[in-house]
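Treating backbone geometry as a discrete language has practical consequences that deserve illustration. The sequence in question and its structure tokens are set out directly beneath this paragraph.
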Amino acid sequence: MRVLAVLLLASTALLADDGRQILKDAEARHRSRTQEYEGVLTVTSKDGKVRRKSWKSYREGYAGDARQLIRFTDPPEVRGVGFLSVGKKGKSPDQWLYLPSMKRERRIAAQDREASFVGTDFSYEDLDELDESAFEISVEPSETEGGQDCHVLELRPKERSQYERKRVFVRKSDLYVARVDSYRKGQKEPFKRFLALDIATVEGHVAARRLEMRDLGKGSTTVVLLEKLSFDKAQPADRFTLQNLNREGGD
């Protein structure tokens, strides 16, 4: 029995190592110096009410070292609202929200990261880049998503999170993350489901041109269409700073 227990522990450790390596390989394959796009958002509530928003998104780095700036451009009531995220490898990123009405930024506290991001189905935590070093990882049996055979990994956060675990579907053909199911504590069914759709090669990078976040609890969905998607463009030195975030109308 003792030998069996040792073998089971060794097997579990190997599976965890395999899962982490899958995510490391995925990061290495899809890492870009920068990414930018114009996002057209549609938020559809359970009762069919539709709201539309637009933003510009800029990212430098990738995964745990990513820095991201989002600036809303439409409708007028959210125009100028800005969001800045600065990654910290293995930890939750530092995040700030700029509101034109306040003329200053507000830091997003740990206990506020589960709140809705400017009326969408994304929470502030949902905007985090997928950083393998921030999770304990195990491997589950393969499944199919969008007609593609996928590795399925269970991720359990090391730091405070609204989610107890995530199930991440990584396409075997190109190691692209196609789906993420997020579970709250004690839940057997996912609370939210993220889907990467319309996946194609853009400027030499595999990328989704349509993102969906489904709040399965509320029955609402946010769809983001990525327009003018581009990679590896040089970014201004001050783009990912609080000074730029607070600059009225600054990108």
In short: Confidence is low (pLDDT under 50) at residues 3-15. The radius of gyration is 19 Å. The helical segments are 2-30, 242-245.
